[in-house]
Every structure is written in structure tokens, then in C-alpha cells.
Specification:
This protein is an alpha+beta fold. It contains 6 helices and 11 strands. The longest helix is centred in the first third of the chain and has 18 residues, at 42-59.
């Protein structure tokens, strides 16, 4: 049987680029980050990412990338999934950029997976974080952008309709926490039944506590009279900043 091998993990966002080597148990062996450069074209941005993860592999002592188990990459959307063709809203240099193909070309022979960054956060929290041991969980991220991922019965929810669950959250906000799409109504029930009764529920990511709570409470369908924002219109919500 082959020995378990480390993986290369990449995080691509509008604020920073990050790369790390992760062991089979989920421990971060080494990592590096750099601010996402502005004003570059698509190839210059790619070369910045390439230099970043090349340096991380060198730091980890991995001289032969074929020794890796694979490459996992989280990137802001929208994107064509699972093809990994990305057009991050906050990275205008990349429009229909073939990120998965470029990574596969750069690291031949390795399996490469590219997914929405917030979905990656949810998967990680379910594996090693706040959702560990739970059958279902919702992870929401409020950072440069807003996003989320959903685990139902131990399985990651994919597909066009829920690839960016932030849109689902915003739809709920516009409706005051009421699900109007009958196809999504079962999801609201799952949120209420699993997340609201979980003592370990946590909203992961972001730096604005009030906004994260508002999103969570509206997605969970809490009654307006006990929510943080009560009946305030969305464009009048507090930000938690002075």
C-alpha cells in the first residue's frame, strides 16, 4: 500500500494569494501568502501564483511534485465547475481563466481540484473544524466577498443552483428570511433542524461579527423579532465598524 502523501493547497482571493503543504491528517506543514497584486494581466497574475507555490514546495523540501497526493485550490467565483475555469469578480485580470488546466499543466500527473473558496472552507470545517462529527452543516464566509458551502448527510452539495450559496443567503435576506422557492424549502428545514440545534454551530471566516450573525440568522430562518437586525432593511444593516 502506498504511503499517505501531502497535498498542495491554494487559496486565491481578491485580497491575498496563499499556498500551503498539508499532510494527510490535515496539518499545515508550511505555507506562504502574498497580497493579490492589482493592475496585472492574466499571465502576470498566474506567474505570481506559480512563484508562490513553487517557493512553498521548496520550503517543504518537495523537489519532485509527483510525490504529492494532488492539488486542491479554492478560488472566488463565479466559475465553471468542475472544469475550474474562473472569473473572480474581484480579480478582473482573470476572465474565463483556465485555472485547473494551468495547474494540471504545471504539475503534470497530479489530480487537480478547483472549487469555490467558501465551499472549500465548509468542507474543511466539516472534516477538521466546527462541523466535525456532524452529518450536516452550513459554512458562511464574509470577507472580500460573501460565500458559503453546504454539507448534507455527510455529502458536499455541488451543482449550478447551489455552487454559490451566498446567492441563496441573499435571496433569503431579500425575503426577510422566508424561502419562496419551493425547490429550496427543504434546505431551510435542514438549516433549522441541524444547525440551530447544534451546540457547536459556528459561522466560519470573515472579520465582521455582526454581519456574519445577520447572515446566519436570516439563513436559519429566525423570527424577525429576535434577530440581530430585527426589521431593518438590508441596506441599513449595521456593519460592526465605527
Amino acid at each position: 500500500m502506498d504511503e499517505p502523501r501531502a497535498a498542495l493547497a491554494l487559496d486565491i482571493g481578491g485580497t491575498k494569494l496563499a499556498a500551503g503543504v498539508v499532510d494527510p491528517g490535515g496539518r499545515l506543514v508550511t505555507w506562504a501568502r502574498t497580497p493579490t497584486p492589482a493592475g496585472l494581466d492574466a499571465e502576470q497574475l498566474w506567474r505570481t501564483l506559480d512563484a508562490l507555490f513553487t517557493g512553498v514546495l521548496d520550503k517543504a523540501g518537495i523537489t519532485d511534485p509527483s510525490l504529492l497526493a494532488g492539488v486542491g485550490c479554492g478560488c472566488g467565483g463565479p466559475m465553471e465547475w468542475p472544469a475550474g475555469v474562473v472569473s473572480p469578480l474581484n480579480m478582473p485580470a482573470w476572465r474565463a481563466f483556465p485555472l485547473r488546466d494551468r495547474l494540471a499543466e504545471r504539475l503534470p500527473g497530479l489530480p487537480v481540484r478547483v472549487h469555490n473558496d467558501a465551499i472549500c472552507v465548509a468542507a474543511a470545517e466539516h472534516w477538521r473544524g466546527a462541523g466535525r462529527g456532524r452529518a450536516s452543516m452550513l459554512g458562511m464566509v464574509v470577507s472580500t466577498g460573501v460565500g458559503g458551502g453546504l454539507i448534507l448527510d455527510g455529502k458536499l452539495v455541488n451543482g449550478a443552483k447551489l455552487q454559490n450559496i451566498a446567492a441563496f443567503a441573499m435571496d433569503l435576506m431579500e425575503q426577510g428570511g422566508v424561502v419562496t422557492d419551493p425547490d429550496l424549502a427543504p434546505l431551510a428545514a435542514v438549516f433549522q433542524q441541524t444547525l440551530m440545534t447544534s451546540p457547536s454551530s459556528r459561522i466560519a471566516g470573515g472579520s465582521d461579527e455582526i454581519m456574519r450573525n445577520i447572515i446566519a440568522e436570516r439563513v436559519l430562518g429566525l423570527p424577525p423579532d429576535i434577530r440581530v437586525d430585527k426589521d431593518l432593511p438590508f441596506n441599513k444593516l449595521p456593519t460592526g465598524k465605527a
